[in-house]
Structure formats: structure tokens, C-alpha cells
Structure prediction request, 760 residues.
Amino acid sequence: MTPARRVILVLASVLFLGRGAAVSATQVRNWPSEGPPRPLPARDIKFPPYELQTLPNGLQVIAVLHHEQPLVSMRLLVRAGSSSDPRDKLGTARLVASLLNQGVQAAPGTTARSAEQLADAIDFIGGAMGAGAATDLTHVNMVVMKDSFETGMQMLSDIVRHPAFHPAEIDRQRQQMLSGLQVSVQDPEYIANAVFDRLVYGFHPYGMPDSGTAETLAALGRDDLIAFHSRYFHPNNAILAVVGDVTAAEAFAMTKKVFGDWEKRDLPADTFIDPPDPTRRLVIVNKPDAVQTEVRVGHLGIPRGHPDYLAVNLAIRILGGEGSNRLHQVLRTERGLTYGAQANMDALKVTGDFEAETNTRSEATGEVLRLIVDEFWRLQRERVGERELADAKAYLTGSFPLTIETPDAIAMQVVNAVFYGLPLEELQNLRERVNAITVDDIQRVARAYLRPDRLSVVLVGNAAAFTSQLQNVGFAKYETIELGELDLTSSTFKRTATRTGRSPWAARVGGAGRAGFVSAVAYVQAPASGFAATQATDEVEKAKALLAKAVAAKGGLDTLRAVKTIVVKQTLSNPDLEGDQGFRTTTFIQYPNKFRTETRSPEGGVNVQVFDGTRVWGKDQRGVREQPEEILRDARTTLRRDPIALLLAATDGSVTPRVLPDVQDATGYVRRALELSAPDFNPVVLLINPETSQIDKLTFVADTSARPIVEDEFTDYRRVAGVQIAFQAWRRSGGRTIARRITDIKINRSLDAALFKRPS
Prediction:
């Protein structure tokens, strides 16, 4: 480690406790680090026995015998989803699916039930029911105890065959979808995914907003829903999986009894426009108030039934998936440009897409885009390593058994396999098929299906902050759309002059894109107009309220403003290094812009590091020397990241607070998340204890050249001169951990100006 890098470590450690200290610039130890453990041995995949029959009316039925619990899962799939929506009635499939369990009408031998009555009936037998619509299909599932098998099957039949579509329920569900759409237009991640789908798939149904638009939803009537149901909900267009504590004979007999009179009908011959060929195109959605850029890069892929599906799946996993993630390694671990990066393979009935995604600081947008494109080229041009492929295989085969542990999970796997026309035997021999894929196979499919020269790119953020970078990374041509003018139903992505009011597009409700995830760092303020302005105001008020709680928990605004100096003594050590005696430090802080850290090693050496507000200098046995610009920049931001300084700056308005989605850790504990950002330093995310409002964790990307992700964890809060101070803390960054324990602290002690004066 060079002296400059050692000093960077010193300064990065100065205030990580909120009032911290540094490690010696010359005595920092080369603490050992280890790689991740190797995967555990693969578990045997014991897929339960099954039988498949087709009833005379065309209903495909799969019976899977699973006797570990007295449960039966029934999952019925209809081959029609949002891709079957009429072009002028987008959102029909989603609205139909949301209404299936909201009441059934009377049919021969049955009784009409309202949504409440239906829910009570399911609860009475201890069952559970769900319904939903995806891109290619609509599904309804029912899980009951074995002794309620017939009752559950009959209820499933009523729900699928005789939905009531009550006008009051239609209005309620429609309003929920509209509210979701209005909220979604504020989320840059949501916007990026929707525009990416539209860019890649064109006017093929896969590219259209599957939750509809405000205009199409408002125009949907009961007749439209009945027409969709009558068009597609027929036994010869459906698959039923019965999984659980039944015999095959029982499953087939019950299915024939309940569904045997479901009348077979002629099915419509839907025809779709073909997706466009991959084309190099960059679309920017401009949000001038954004401090981050959502980045999407990819192109058209392959359908689920493609013979190379598994090999391509592993290739995309190596690029950016579980088990081996090159994008995450380059963008986060090595460069610290993002909180996370990944690549996904969306394989649908007709076709699919490959998509790399991340978000980053506005000023790093060009660099991130270049690195992503480079990784597409690298995967195509270079053979992957045996270790990389082995790790991706291990994750895929190791995680699969977790997807067939319950009857409902097995039912989902089975109906999906049948839907895509895959042999059910593929569920049993997955490990063998995965392990048969070689490095040569990965190189072959990468060269066959990846098109780095024809990547579609979507950037959502403050265009003025990054467009000047694009030419230098190979994207001199781009299209810019103002967010308020965005229209996914337009060939130009722009609202035409004949349209009035808000942009009619809407992204997906309940998640971002088809995968249904929501980023914890992607929310920004909405344009100051109409409903969006109200939502933005609400978000600002939420951020202010959470900030006020954190300030009060820290000691209150007046108390924090009164803090002028701090002197803190503490020990710093590596908890992973057995027998480490650590360093004893004393730090003198004078607000707003001075600190001095004196570090004593176990061997007795003393080092001094000082930031006097304009420069950084250090003193050790070799003498006094000034530090370079990179260390000076880090020293400035280190002071600004101090929790008390951050809270005051956010209160005063020089730092912008923003509420992020709650964060749940591995134990299931949920904390509130508050981002604090300013144009001249990287955002800091505070994880706030929902019970005490104390700051449990603080994370940010360091301003050093390596740009590592830094996470500080705080415990053992004690009141000192009215201020709550964390007496125990841990800093984790770059695979290393530094533990800090305060032994003494004084607030507002008078400090001699000579402490910060550089010796001659």
C-alpha cells in the first residue's frame, strides 16, 4: 500500500462513528482477507411422481403426488395475459385478473357470492387463493387442506368460470390501478424499465405498458372485461396442476367431476406485429431534478422454449446474475460507481430480451455506460473462466430445489413447463443438463445471440449532467424526451400536439418491469404539475418528518447547533484478526472544517493527521508533509458525512433529504431509509431505527479513486452533553472491518488553535 493510499484510509476512518478517529498512516496493518466460501455439495433433486391427462374438453391436467403435508394445491393457468390486451384497451388482462376473486355469479348448482363472502368461505376451510396476470398468461391458484379438496376445487371452478365483475368492484380495482400508475411515474427505475421494454419490443404487445394507461383504464367497461373472459377462458386454452396429498386417480376424478362440463370453444387466432431487429439506439428521459441516472442496456433475446435457453441463461448469469456477476464486480466492487448492478434474461412465449441494469451518480453516467458495453463485448469475445461457469452452475442447480419444496411451488413449476411446451422430465434432470454445458457452449451462445454493436440504451436522469459524456463513450447520437412529454404509445416516445393533459403512459404497477423489483435508491421528485406535484410535496414532507425524528433522537436541533468542538479518545482494531491490540487515537474536531487525529500504535509510535480547513498535512518520525489533492477532497467530505453535520445540513437545506424504501436485513428487521445528497458529494443513506429513531447504519460511496462502498454500523448510544453518541461502531469497506470503541469524549472543550497549525 502506498503512503498516499494509507493516508486515504486514515481520513476515511476519521469520523465514521459520527465523532471518530484515524488509523496510523504508517502503522496500518495489512490485515488478511479471504474469498467467499465454496458452495456446499449439491442436493439431490427428488421431483415427485406425476401423471398428465387431457380431458375431452381440452383441459390439460397434471397430477403431482406430494404426501409430505395434508395439503392440495390447485393452479390453473389460462393462455392469455397482458399481451392479449386489445391495443386500445391496455390493462384489460390485469383488471380481469384482479376481479376474479372479487365475487362469483350464480351458476347451475351454485350460489352467487360477493367478494367478502368468497373470502370468508376460503378462510372457513383454512385455504388461500390468489390470481394474477402476467405477460403471456393469467393464473388462479387455490391451496386447501386435503379434507377440503372438493370444496376448494369447486371454488376454483366458480372463480375461473363465473366471475361476477360487479360494477362496484370494477370501479374499486380500477381506481387502485390508476393510483398505482400515478405513483409510478415518479420512479425513475420504473420509467427506465417501461421505456426499455418499449424500445426493445417496439409495438409488439411485449413492449406496451401491461398495466395500461390512465386513458385506457378509464375507458374500460364491464362489457370489455366480459368480452376478454369469454374470448380466452376456455378449457382448451387452460392448464390445471393438482399437487399434494392426493393420488392421481383422485386428482383426475375430481377434475372431471368439477370441470368436465366446462364447454370447449373455438379459440381466437391472435396475430402480433413482429418485434424490431436489435438496433443501436439511445433514449434519454430527462428529469432535471434527478441526482442519479437509471441505466438500462440490452436488446432482443430468445424465447423460453429455445433449445439454447440453459446455455444463454448461464451466460447472462456470468455477465450479471447470481453465482457470477461481472457487472457487479466491475461497477461496484472495483469502481464503486453504484450500489449494485445486474443482468437479466427475460424469456417469454414468443421472444425475450437481455438487459443490464444499474443506477449511478449523474456525473458517472458515461463511465458506467462504457463499462457495461465493454462487458457485453468481453463476454462475446473472450472465453469465460472455468471457475466463473462453475459458480453460475452451482447457484442455478443449488437454488432449484428451493423452488419445488411446497405443493404450490411445484404446481407453478409444472404449469409453466407445460405452458412453454417443455417436457416435464426437464424438471427432474436439470442438474445433469446444466452440468453438461461447457465453456465452449457459453462462448458459442454469446457469439450467436449477443449484439454489443446493436444495444438499446435507456438513461433516466438529469440529461444536462451527463450528455456531454456520451460522445466520448461511443454514443454521439441520442434522443432526449422530457418526462412530461413521455408517451409509450407513440412511435417517437413523445406526446403529440393533439394530446392534452398529463402524459397518458403508465408503467407497471407493483414493481419495476417484468421482474417486479423496486430499487432502494431510485426515487426522485416528480415534475411540479398536477397530481405529480402533490406526490412530490408528500414525499418532501415525509423526508422532513423522518429527518426531524432523527434530529430529535440525536439530541435536538438546539443541542446539535451548540456543538462547536469535540475531543474523543478511542481504540480502533480489526475484529477479524485474532490478538489484534489495535490503535489508541485522540481526535480533536473544531466545526465546521478542522480536525486533528493523533494515533498511537501498540509499539508506541505516534502519527498526526490534520485538516486545517484548506489543506491536509501529516507528521510522523519522518517529518511533516502535505498530502495530495485526492486526500484533501476526501478530508472535506469526511467532515460533511459526520452524522451530526449531515443532520444539521439537511435541516438547513444545504443537503437534500429523501425517503427511500424501507430496508430489511437478513434477520427480517426493517429500518427506515433516508438519503442525504448534495450536488458536490456522493449521497449518504442513513438507516434509522424505527423504534428509537437513532441512526443504526450509514452507507456511501467514498470519494477516493478506488470508490469503495462504505458501511458504518452504530450501537451502544449514550448521552454526552445532551448529544447521543454511539460508543461502539464498525466500518466495513473493501472486505475489511474496523471496530471502534470510545473510551472518553468531551464536547465543547476549548481547543488551542495551534493544534491545527502546520509546523514550519
Notes: Residues 281-473 form a domain with the Cytochrome Bc1 Complex; Chain A, domain 1 fold (CATH 3.30.830.10). The chain has 22 helices and 27 strands.
